[in-house]
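Throughout this chapter, every protein is written as a compact record of paired, labelled lines. An example of such a record is reproduced below:
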Amino acid sequence: MDPLSIAASVAGLCTLAESIVHRTRAYVRCVRGSEKEIAKLIRATAQLYGILEQIRLLEDGFDDEDGREKGTGLGSVGTVRSMHLVTGEELFECEKTLRKLDAVLKKSDPGTVTGFVNVARKKLEWPFNSKEVTDLLQDIENHKSMLNLALNANEMAAILSCLDTSIHISQIVSQEQLANEEFRATQRKFAFNRRRQKILDFMTTLDPRTDQTMYVQMKQDMTGLWFTEGDEFKAWMSRRNATLWLSGIPGAGKTILFSSIVDKMQRAMNENSVMAYFYCDYRNPVKQDGTTIIRSLIRQFAERNDLCFDKLEEFYEGYSSEDKLSPPTQRDLVTLLLDMSEDVEDALILVDALDECLTERVNVIKLLRDLNIESEKIKTLFASRDEVDISAQLQGYTTVSMAENTSDIARYVESELKVKDWAKDLSQAEKDTIKDSLIEPAGGMFRLVACQLDALAKCKTTASRRKVLRTLPRDLSETYYRILKLIDSTEIADNRLIVQRVLKWVTWAATGLSLGELQEAVAINAGDEELDPDVITTENDILDLCSSLVRCNPRGIIELAHATVKEFLTTIPSESEYYFYHVDEASDMTALATTCLTYLCLDNFGEENGWDSASITSSISYKTSVTGSEKSGMPDQILQYHFLDHAAENWDYYAGKVTENWSQVLTLEKRLFAPTKVPQFLNWARRRLELIRYRRGRIGSLLAESTTLQWAALLGLHAICQWLIDQGSDVNRATVALGSSLVCAVLGESVFREHESDGREPGSDDGSSDYDGGYDVKNGRAWHSENRHKTIAALLSRGAVMDGMPLEESRSLMELALIIGEPSHVKLLLSHGAILDTDCLSYLQTQCSEGPRKEEMQGILSAVTKINYASSDAQKATKLLLQFETSSIQATKLLAVTLGDLTTDEGTEVQDKNEALRKVSEYGQYELVAQLLDHPDIATDHVDKCGFTALHEAAQSGHLQVVQLLVEKNFNINARDMDGNTPAMQAASFNHFEVVQYLQQHGAVLVDQVNTEGETIASLAAKSDCHRIVRYIAETDPRLRREASKAPSIFWTSSQLMRSLQSQKMDDQHCILQQPLETRRSLR
């Protein structure tokens, strides 16, 4: 849809007023004697039409064809204005009056009935009585007065502008001086705010304002007034913690309406409120992720409110510290958002297109819905299709259906008929016929009307337009079939092929394609050796052939015209005559991969000297047109290859998803990755390095020393790796920059990481830390974990060794493999004897304890055996494995290593079983504890040199299940170690409340037990800030409850109590703990 401004809105009203005058005059001609009664009404409406036409001409001069303000042409007098002549709200009131008049006149139009009697009856029916005519005239006069006032004000402004030219110039000079001062202040502020920007970027760099700007340009000025002036929306605005759901059928224009709501809300917000919005998008998986949405909402709150920013800054400090390896969890982010909402009066959250969250839709909706539940300050407005799963999650939401109002569609059709070249010469009667045929039958489906107008625009005669109107499709699916039928009717095979290829590329492209890129992509055929300019389709032809199916967005990217287009193309049945246009990701990936590879292997890129680094990496944009680029004076050879960047960066992404006709892709890969480097390979590799911003000065040496096997391994091309080794490539050849082929396979493109300065800072947008920030390749588009696993396996099977790291890399291959975090790859390396050094074990310890991939890392431990660590690290490795390894057999074998002189067999027989029991109790190995307890040699009073029993170990480590098992086996629950501490005292020292509670319930003495330092369980808990345990001791011991009523009533604060408990004086503690229950509750 073309962007529509105030001028287009006025144009629509002109069309409507003109239609009313036409109908009224027709009635006068049919009904004799009616002139006196309606003469005033005709005259008033005609005058209103004249005023509207004047405003339209002025607004046409005020808005250029893209809806932006300009100061030349008919509207040049408008240069003294800072806004449009009239507002959308004023036009909306005028429109309501005209529509009321038009609707009644339609019912009494003699032309709408047949038969002599019926026509005669219609002629005798004047639809208004005298009072109604008077009221209508008054309303029209009010609108005339308002609009005339606007015109007069504009004319007066122009006169004053001419009279005060010198003053105006002086003001301009002053304004320029002020602007210069403001610019300098802005520069100072910018320097000051660099930290602020860094903190905001830590949350996300995704900016929904880009989407808002794009969508708001696609709407008429009065779009959505029926909604924002409606009772439901006003009620939502007036209530705290309110909810509203805008639902609609596919193609109803929900997103455009949503952008109107956001636009209105942005202008209505006050300093005590914040608003955040988000556009979900079926084309972009990132915009379907719940965590991404929450990050964006947080950033917008922080941008709009200083108190919210302070909360974000504090959060940032906590997660950007060097010792913070894990990024914030989704729950951490939600807590921050809720905390921010408490600092404002109202927090508004608006999210569009929930139905476009394709994989985790229910979870995303629950996440957003619960924000409103968890905070009384948050009110939510969502827009989506009315689908069963969405409706189920949004029960209780006030719902507004877009099908209930067609005024936006009516306004759009009237404006199109007024401003479009193809409709300007149509008679009023034909325009009325088009409106009647499109607006009501559309049933609120904006997209359907847009396609039908596109079809009418292609008609060259009245007869052809009538034919189109008589056979209008009933729904979008039939509309899209009609478009394909029209393409087929040309009987030009090339046209069909061009459309098919455009649809495949636009649907599945890894990144958006410009028209220039698309032109070259669809021109490539299998077997091409050169890019022939004569077979490239023009930009206009592509847009014309695919009309209503694709569009060019404001950023110059070609995209599907609507989400319903993809739904239609993916569901064309195989028996359909239009199955040729069916798109399927699995089968289409072969075509996309072969197109990219064919392009990269063209003879056009066969001359290495013609593609030196300096020329390829010039600052020109490959997405500009050839004409525009020629003006820059650059050579034609470089300018014509628009598709180069996309093919170089994404071919392996497509190849990795190929499941059909793999041989075609493999043949082209062999041509590009020949053992002896061909110019096409060097040109591609150079461009790939430049696209990832590899240091330019090092590119030449890297390309000179690297092998095609290293590059194939780096991309995870397992079949090519095997073929190259068969052709004689050295599997263990290592280079300074890349290391060995195995290193390339494990690290992927992270091997290009700049070690001196990787350009990242702690707390970057992906949440990774400075420690592992340069190795976040696992989530890259071209990673393909399964293919990379096959590549690593192929290299290892051909004798690859695990050394040969890049010269500047100080860490081991295994440590980097752990950082990247592919468990299957790590286990494969371990099975081939990879060594976990001390740094690897430390990293595993941290990640298994508190890292974001705890389960993955713990799963890796099942593959670790004695051969995977040095003897000097045996104790550290075994401690780690016993702590987290869940396999009893593996744990038993590792236990033997720790105990040194112990042996083990399949029956888990261990010589010193009591020492083994203490060890496995410490690490919570429940199954091993149970097995050992069944042995007759186990002694319940066995202690180590510090006096620790197995129960001490389990209690201190907090393993409740093991504690329960040992207590059931009659281990002494009040046993003391060398320092006089009981198991309950050890549990209290480490804040294991559930263990303390269980031991007390099974006979543990919590009071009167004092260790060799004079400490009680209460003082030990207080020293560790274990408030919950202190409260439990105070409230559960029966002796304390009996004595509480006898003690003096003295008020103690929580801090006083904790300090006294830490004083280590038994008498003082008794005095405190014997206070009444009300006193002790002050701890809470």
